[in-house]
Amino acid sequence: MKLIDIGANLAHESFGQDLPAVLARAQHAGVGAIVVTGSSAESSQAAATLAAAHPGFLYATAGLHPHHASDWNEALAEALRRLASQPGVLAMGECGLDYFRDLSPREAQRRAFTAQLDLAVELKLPVFLHQRDAHPDFFAILRDYRSQLADAVVHCFTDTTEALADYLRLDCHIGITGWICDERRGRHLLAAVRGIPADRLLIETDAPYLLPRTAPKAAHRRNEPGYLIYVLRTIAAARGVDEDELANITTDNAMRFFRIAIRA
Predict the structure, then answer these.
(1) 214 touches 233 (CB < 8 A)
(2) Does pLDDT of 218 surpass 80?
(3) Are 222 and 14 in contact (CB under 8 A)?
């Protein structure tokens, strides 16, 4: 069994002291590739550096999270354009809208989002998308761009079945995290995940966040790519399919989406 974690924030400071051990545990757990999320100028550069240091195992995205949308300017756009030209950088993002926390003004969020979609179209890259409590605006913008985009994944999907149907109508991929393992707030995802077509399903940890509640309890409470198997197991049980079969499906989907190949 080989898995691909399509979104892990390995540039986060919590991995600063033990990243080699984290990567070794991930490989031991069957993770064959990890896409390191870029969410700011600094983390995108760090993600690209990690990808260059671990070719064939670590890859990266380059983007600006909506929390940081107020930072958007032409210099940042050019920096992301340069990063996105590097061989191990596979997608634009994390980009989108977040009206849950509103850490940047909503108009700034929409401006940074559309600018990054423009970059993705220019560079012919897929997009790694974030949406929280902003579905109407997010969907309207994405709908206008979707036909021009190489591909799109709505990462860390936790929304309603209605939102899911909208994204699937746009032929988006859907990323599922350890949120589905939370019996308190993720119960609705157990039903929703059954409605995701097999060829549109992707899995991720969003480490160090969203530690699966089904994973062994650890003192640090930090999620890491080695726990991706717990996401897979919960989805497999919800869909009533074999874990190995689902692993093959999601890995094939990720390789196709990011245009990579991993060793069996």
Answers:
(1) yes
(2) no
(3) yes
